[in-house]
Amino acid sequence: MTVEKISRVRPPYPFEDYRFEIRLLSRAEGGGFLISFPDLPGCHSDGETIPEAVKHGKEAFQSWVSARLHDRLPVPEPSRHEERPLDAYSGRFVQRIPRSLHAELAARAEAEGVSQNSLVLALIANGLGRLRNANPDRDDVAIVAEPTAAYRTGKRTRATALRRTKKN
Hints:
The structure is a single chain. By secondary structure, the protein is α+β, with helices and mostly antiparallel strands. The chain folds into 2 domains: 9-80 and 135-168, Double Stranded RNA Binding Domain (2-Layer Sandwich), CATH 3.30.160.250; 92-133. Helix content is 39%, strand content 11%. The strands form 2 sheets. A 3-stranded antiparallel beta sheet has the order 1-2-3, with helices on one face. Strands 4-5 form a two-stranded antiparallel sheet. A hairpin with a 7-residue loop joins β2 (33-36) and β3 (44-47).
């Protein structure tokens, strides 16, 4: 087997223009976090923490682009998601969920004295607020789809819940 050294080249589009996804790897997969680029087939990396996965993702991106250009293959443009005006949305969507989750939502809504629709609306709004205000440099943040979009994985929330359970 021969190994060919490929020179690094300047990518036609910067890393920041590409959508990427980060997901938690199971213990069976080796743990840590996987970063992948939907626009760049086969371009992915991992890391023990989210910041490390992003750092390794930047390195994988650079290597992937260099290899494509070395082989005289095109580098796909970053996908664009055009924004639609608000009046293009009805304000309604239907989502099927597992019965166990439905039961949990119903119990929580009843305990809080609100409808299930109001509870789900509040939970979604809370989650979207975290998306806008999350700090991607912290380890308890998972980045999804866009480099600037992030949401909390809830590691600390689960740990707090476990501590409260143990105290009671």
